[in-house]
Amino acid sequence: MLKVDEIDVYYDNIHALKGVSLEVLAGEIVTLIGANGAGKSTLLKTLSGLLRPKTGRIDYFGQSITNKPVQSIVQSGISHVPEGRRVFANMTVAENLDLGAYIRKDKKAIEEDKQAVYALFPRLLERKKQLAGTLSGGEQQMLAIGRALMAKPKLLLLDEPSMGLAPLLVKQIFQIIQEINQNGTTILLVEQNANMALSIANRAYVIETGNVVASGTAKELQSSERIKQAYLGGM
Amino acid sequence: MKMINRFWKFMLLAIIIYTIIQLLITTEVFNLFYTNTLITIAINIILAVSLHLVIGITGQFSIGHAGFLAVGAYISAIVTMKLALPFPLALFAAGVIAAVAGLIVGIPTLRLRGDYLAIATLGFAEIIRIIFLNIDYVGGAAGMVVSRTTNWTISYICLLITLIVIINFTNSRHGRACVAIRENEIAADAMGINTTYYKVVAFVIGSFFAGIAGGLYAHNFYIIQPASFGFLKSFDILIFVVLGGLGSLSGAVLSAILLTIVSTFLQDYAETRMIIYSLILILVMLYRPQGLMGTREITDFFTSRKKNALKGGENL
Ligand SMILES: Nc1ncnc2c1ncn2[C@@H]1O[C@H](COP(=O)(O)OP(=O)(O)O)[C@@H](O)[C@H]1O
Ligand SMILES: [Mg+2]
């Protein structure tokens, strides 16, 4: 579904991604784990068109999306939930969801998808007229995910959805991610919480200072000594 | 249906206000001084509302609005006084050239995130002022003599057009995109909103109407001088928007009216004016840091809805 081939991404003279390659197959949950500053967010931003790779190629369903603008990438079915729960604070929950469907014009289907998001996150339904800025952290994360779903993605890019959430909420968010996946959306999940991420993923990539240093099935990585030492608290 | 309804209600109200004021003018209840104040109010509302679109709706901090006012003033004056063309055409030219200036300033700076626009607009306004100061064709420091053509009716028409365009834009899909940028640019980007495009569009529309205001301004007194378009003028306009409440159009209108009245009656006491201005600002910031209206609109008080920020799809 998505094939990233040797991309290099720079911020001015900072070389943030160094020849990164990876692949996501339809229906999978793939997770990308790595320490702070490894380049995880940079990779997601590049996939959604917010950043441009200097070299390399990104194919989506066999077609290059390497230098496409964000709008057409969103339209082709890739939605990005940026890191840090970025909701539109002075808009209501419902207005936030409407903006998620910004690139769509099929009004009736949008309304149906909104109901589907409410079904997935009943808390958002209860608070649909509340201003997003007054939601709790967990609710804002749900809203950010729900809003991305409003674009009807085939591939959902999630950037550290568990960041700063209480353990119980993290568990709930991960359950919902699985549910979204079971409903047919492929997921690329960026996480620092490697334990949780590996527990729901099919496959994983490990990234260190802009390089992919390991990859394999989630099970393989969970049992690798090196990964255990570095990312799973040495257990 | 609802949309059309709102439009006609707005027009009806506009016509009633116009008729009452016109009646007061023709019966000479309002003397020249009052009429002049009304024209100044109309010009200031146009300035306030055009800057509101840039700052309040799109969240881009522009602090050199007087630069576009100056462009409009001088361009319109050249069109009527040097080229001897009709006033309405001069107003239109003022808007168009100011919009082009907005495009030139906006495209390089609005692509960047952060406070570049504030610096760029501040610099732009100063550069414009200095350019006019040094062009003999428009009189240099002494200024340019302009015939007095602006009247209440044409000011009011320009004001209405400004309001209709900006309210419609704000309530459209494009306006929602702009509000999303104000609320969170990165998220707006990720939704597939072309953020640079919308920032530039809002900025250019704002510049256009500031240019129109400049045309009215130039023809409302017998002379225009570069000194009238300095930083203090930009600051005055900025105050309308901030005092009214960032994001509230009615707030911007209200504070433009209030502050114009205050400063008109304190015209002869320039220092007192600045003191009272500052006091008002300090008081508002102490007791209503969100501005007079916050992000609400006057219409919110008449409808039962407690929604703000956006009113999906209900155009004028
Ligand atoms: N906007 C930026 N400008 C310059 N450098 C950046 C920017 N964003 C990230 N970086 C740098 O790129 C590297 C990767 O960052 P990032 O992708 O955010 O890491 P992660 O998401 O894995 O924590 C880091 O060294 C970071 O300092
Ligand atoms: Mg990150």
Automatic annotation (TrEMBL), chain A:
GO terms for biological process: L-amino acid transport. It comes from Perspicuibacillus lycopersici. SMART domains: AAA. Belongs to the ABC transporter superfamily. It comes from the Bacteria. Pfam families: ABC_tran. PANTHER family: HIGH-AFFINITY BRANCHED-CHAIN AMINO ACID TRANSPORT ATP-BINDING PROTEIN LIVF (PTHR43820:SF4). Keywords: Amino-acid transport, ATP-binding, Nucleotide-binding, Transport. InterPro entries: AAA+_ATPase (IPR003593), ABC_branched_ATPase_LivF/BraG (IPR030660), ABC_transporter-like_ATP-bd (IPR003439), ABC_transporter-like_CS (IPR017871), BCAA_Transport_ATP-bd_LivF (IPR052156), P-loop_NTPase (IPR027417). PROSITE patterns: ABC_TRANSPORTER_1 (PS00211), ABC_TRANSPORTER_2 (PS50893). Signal peptide: none annotated. GO terms for molecular function: ATP binding; ATP hydrolysis activity; branched-chain amino acid transmembrane transporter activity. This is ABC transporter ATP-binding protein. The keyword tRNA processing does not apply. Residues 2-234 form the ABC transporter domain.
UniProtKB/TrEMBL annotation, chain B:
This is Branched-chain amino acid ABC transporter permease. CDD domains: TM_PBP1_LivM_like. It holds the Pfam family BPD_transp_2. The chain crosses the membrane at residues 7-26, 32-55, 62-81, 87-107, 114-132, 152-170, 197-217, 237-262, 274-290. It is a multi-pass membrane protein. InterPro entries: ABC_transp_permease (IPR001851), LivM-like (IPR043428). Keywords: Cell membrane, Membrane, Transmembrane, Transmembrane helix. Its main location: membrane.
